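Researcher: Predict the fold of D-2-hydroxyacid dehydrogenase.
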Amino acid sequence: MKIWIDMTMLKDEHFDYFVEKYPKITFESNIENAYDADAIFCMPGIAIKNKLELFPNLKWIQLLTAGYDPVDVDYIHQRNIVLTNAKDVFSIQIAEDVISKILYFNKNIKAYAKQMENGLWKHHKVDYEISLSTIGIIGTGSIGLEVAKRLKAFETNVVGYKRTRVDLPYFDKIYYGKEGLHQVLKESDYVIISLPLNKNTYHLIGKKELEMMKPSALLINVARGDIINQDALAEALSKKTIRGAGLDVTSPEPLPSNHLLWKLDNVFITPHNSSSGPYMIHRLIDEVDDTLKRYINEQELDNTI
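Model: C-alpha cells for D-2-hydroxyacid dehydrogenase follow.
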C-alpha cells in the first residue's frame, strides 16, 4: 500500500511518525512520486476531479480538515473511492472560540481594550448574560455538540436545528425541517452556525431569516461564510436588526479591507482561525492514525462522508 501525505499543514516529524509506525506501508510526501498511490491524506483543494484523475489507483482519501465543501464528492463516489474527514479534530477549539465571541459583546471587551491603551478607568453597563438565555445551534454535528456541552454549563436552554429528527445530549430540544429552523431563529438569544456548506445550506440564512431573529440576538458563524447571505447580514447589522455578529468566516476570504463589515461597531471578525489551538495537530494525527488502523484492518470507519 502506498500513501501520499499532503504536508501543507504538517511537519516532517508527523510524516516520520507514520513511516516508523507502519513500516509495511510506503509513504510519500512528494506528489510527483505519488501518482500511483492507493490512498492520500490531503487538504480539500486536492480532492477535485482534475487532480484526482492523476491518481488512477486511488481507493481512499483522508481529508486533513473537517470541512469538505471544495471536494468533488460526486466524482469520488463515482470512482468508488472511500472519503473520510477529520471530523472531531477542531470541535473543542471552535467551541471555545464561540464563547469568546459571545463574551466579546456581552462584556464590552472592545471598549475596555481601547480604554487600556489610554489608561482610562471607566465603567460600561452590562446588559446581557449567557446565563438563563436560549442558545440556538444550527448544525448539531461534532462542533455543535461541543458548543452545546460548554454552553449548557452556563445554565442555558440549548436548542438545535438538524435536517432530521434526533435526540442528542446537551440539547434541550432538537428542531428539524424549515419550520424548525425558523423556530430556532425566533426563540434564540444566541444563534450559532456550525453546519457544513453544501447546496442545501448555501445562503440558508438570508434577509427573511435575519428578520426572524430577536433584535437583541447575536449571530455567531464558525462554519462557512456562504451559509449566510453576507449582503443581507451587512444590511441587518447596519440597521441593528440584530445586536451583532461574531464571524470567523466570510465570503470571500480574506474579506476585502474596504468591506462594510470591517467598519461596523457591532461586528467582531477573526480570520478563519477558530480551529487554532495547541493540541490541534496532535488531535489531527490521532484521528488520521485511528482511521488508518481501521482501514487496514477492514473495520467500520466512523468518519466516512
